[in-house]
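Usage example:
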Amino acid sequence: MSPDRSTLLLADDDPTIADSLAPFLERAGFHVLVVSDGVSAFEKAQAHHPELIILDVLMPRMDGRETLRRLRKANIWTPTILLTQVGEASERALALEEGADDYLNKPFDPHELLARIRAVLRRVRPGQRSLSAAWLLTAADLSLDRRARRATLAGATIELTPKALSVLEYLMTHPDEAVTRERLLEAVWGWEYPAGTRTVDTRMAELRRALDDDPAEPRFIETIPGEGYRFIAPVHGEG
Amino acid sequence: MFKKGWGSLLLIFLPFAAGIIAFILIIVYSGSISPFLLTADFGFLAFVFGVTIRNLGVIVLGLGMLLTLFLGLFYYRTLRQQEQTQMLLSEAEREAELGRRRFLRRLDHEIKNPLTGLRAALVNMQEAQAGEDQARAVGNAEHAVERLTRLLTDLRKLSDLGERPIELAPVDVPDLLQDVVEAAHVLPAYGGREVNLLIPKVPSPFPMIIGDRDLLVLAVYNLVENALKFTYPTDSVEIRVGEDGRAILIEVADSGVGIPPEDVSKIFEELYRGSNARSTEGSGLGLALVNRIIGLHDGQINVRSSQEEPRGTVFTIRLPGGKKGLTRLTPV
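Running the assembly step on the lines above writes:
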């Protein structure tokens, strides 16, 4: 293992997936440790201090969610990607409790996983609790209470549809990151939609109206032409 | 107790009238003539007779017989209701089991084909020399994976639709339809075709409906995609919207091949493929999804189709909405 290569811990009980993903990620320049259950993942994470953990949800001995909860309880804040879908509100709250840094739905394109890994590694500050695990997010005079599902601007509650609120949540937990419309669709809507880009743009317009954010001179959300959006204000997490 | 003439008249008339009433009651409540009818008649007769001769024993006997009637009637009715419920339940269970088997059989078929393609492509990848043949094998493998992914995605959508609540907010239908037409442009089946969108100018603005915009886009899009798949480049596809004060009507019409009459009643079933749709690609869940989405909006969907001239298919979605809906509901 060369010192400049980031170490990834990949936990998936399906040997076909692990055997195919590991060489792919190695080729992409990472050092990959592979385990096939939650207990081994927990032990390896403590022993080897990987830079990032990829956890499948359904695994023998201890499932991915429980593994992540235990890691966080043990104050191990290694950035983690869960291989699952976050759909419903209850699921979302659960995900928040787990403190995963990102989610990816199976089946996924390995290139998408690579993009997620790189984005998470760029975003996280080593050893620190990530924004994904914070209950309250603030950026300037905007704050988002993720438990109460309420956003306030300069102290006043802003009216948002649940989808727009989830879009804001995703952007605020991924600040300074170019988020594509496709990524937003997958993370917030859970499915691909026809007219998907228009769907995202409609919600973004709603969000900007509510935040009183001028797309030409944005305070919060910047449009990246041909790519997607970026939350540009610095975000602080609490709780 | 009674005057002599009235008394004897009552003695004859009342048991007779009671018998008829009991007879009607039994027919209405139990659905059949039961032995209790006789008890009722005798009971009432004994009661009236007892009252006439002022004999307490006979009165009690009559009342007892009447009570027996009512208890018997109650018991008989409960028993019948239980039987009927049991029958309906086992019928529903049988139907569900049949549906489940049918679904699994169809799923097996839907997975079998892309998987066979994938296996063949893998063999070709191993055996073919690097170059055109191998590139084709990779292309075929990717195509098979895409088909399986689409099937899985649609299955997930169907199961999600039953579980997550839909978002309710005012929806601008003409704007929604415009999005659908734009999204359909990129479909391979679109070709150089015209999809006509007809939106009435009056009333203006067009009444809003309350619903989940994203899901409604998906529903209409699936109909338009189907229309494009089952038409030739020379055919027309039309999306129309109208309102009748109580509901918004969205129609997706085409002059395509039409649906065989024997398939019309089944096309909204999960994974059902009509006899002329077997060679056309799709997950087989598109119309089931449309049906589920419209149902979640308390709407209805109907289809009219003809394979003879003037041939074509018209899907009509009816969604509750219009003026009343707008004043009643506010954005979530």
